[in-house]
Amino acid sequence: MKITLIGVGLIGGSMALKLKAKGLASYVYGVDQNQNHLEEAKSLGIIDEISTLENAVLNSDLIIIAIPVDATRKILSNVLDLVDDRKTVMDAGSTKEGIVNSIEDHPHRNRFVAFHPMWGTENSGPKSAISDSFSGRAGVICDRENSADDALETVQKVADALDMHLIYMKAADHDVHTAYISHISHITSYALANTVLEKEREEDTIFQLASSGFSSTVRLAKSHPEMWVPIFKQNKENVLDVLNEHISQLRKFKSALEKDNDELLEELIRNANKIRGILGEK
Amino acid sequence: MKITLIGVGLIGGSMALKLKAKGLASYVYGVDQNQNHLEEAKSLGIIDEISTLENAVLNSDLIIIAIPVDATRKILSNVLDLVDDRKTVMDAGSTKEGIVNSIEDHPHRNRFVAFHPMWGTENSGPKSAISDSFSGRAGVICDRENSADDALETVQKVADALDMHLIYMKAADHDVHTAYISHISHITSYALANTVLEKEREEDTIFQLASSGFSSTVRLAKSHPEMWVPIFKQNKENVLDVLNEHISQLRKFKSALEKDNDELLEELIRNANKIRGILGEK
């Protein structure tokens, strides 16, 4: 099938590479505000043609929107204006409720499938795209009852080609769970980076002493604000809720240390250790 | 040379494997409170012989102490009682000031080299040991002026065999820097795990939605309390200082979100992004 890729960066680029490799995508039109990214994506084989939005959608069976969630909200209604009952539109955004609410009354609402692939890195742009990125990861489809069966089937084919397994959720539930499991990790990591940059004025010392542990915890702090400010804003209430809990958890460590309460310190750590079993490790 | 390994777990085991592979260690005596670990270490080729502390030290040129920092403080003076001027003692602990202070008046103080290899994982025990773990990492030697030249040369040979480069610091400075760069990362990660476990009661959802980003940020939360409670306690003042800063950084995110202050949110993220350059990446 022919595909329009709106946003030719890390996520869209990775999807297109794999869908082409698997033969599901016969031709990919690239649409992006960033002309350099479009040219990079073309030279990397992510897209076959740089196109306008209208021309691309007109000639495509599937439209994949892989841009920041605020930009998705702005463009989605226009894209749905351009489609007919043979076309499917899917997104890849990290928040869902605001996006589905923005088109709930659109006459082509049922051509849209709200999708969130549970993969990403701290990098961005077409050069960061990796074909096998999504293998073994979950893809979440939200509010499936509002999408046409054949549109859902198309997205199922995409997920199969990406080697992902599908999970179904209400958009509102998705946003609660991703605040807990994904969004707070980013704030934690940003705040850790800012903490270290504030306290450790000797940058060379950071570089020299940084262990694999520090690098791992601070990895997400390299993620760009263009993607993450809109996510935090669109999921504000859920993110604030979990951020309050996180500050309260850090205060427990502080109190345990201040009061030399070894038992509490050990209990806090043993509780945290449970994450090993939950993540499916030994 | 013959080596005594006190603590045959992740760090000691990884060191012994590499020192044997490089031919620097001709024979390794293993000393540990955990009999299972001793037997595992022997069957994994980490040690050649299970021994008492006295017998091991008597027959060794180098004694490596790789146990939790509270246990190191308890045992170090006894080990120095057993050595003569031809033997070298080194540790691998993550805090340094308490350890060097505990033996500052010992008649064999100059046989001890305070060492900290900047590597570790969230795992423990001899089965976690990896021969090439330390390659390219920094090894910190503290208060070198209190160690004999030949003892420092022995540790230099060890660092060379492990493919590490040495950095020299005062013990007090080491503890400040590691609080900033290493110890706070662990508290951050523990607190993140506890946050998610508190908010997300559906463990299966954590497992299903956990992305590589979450796994990365929460990795250190799998680290055992036996190692980390003593580190936090021995570095209490520095850790509390950086923990206060970290809570204050999280409050800035909270305030920016609550007040819809997009500019501050973006500024906080852009500042955090600087860590990419400091860690030596593109």
TrEMBL record, chains A, B:
Residues 247-274 form a coiled coil. One of its GO terms (molecular function) is NAD+ binding. It comes from the Bacteria. Keywords: Coiled coil, Oxidoreductase. One of its GO terms (biological process) is tyrosine biosynthetic process. Residues 1-282 form the Prephenate/arogenate dehydrogenase domain. NCBIfam families: PRK08507.1. This is Prephenate dehydrogenase. It comes from Kaistella jeonii.
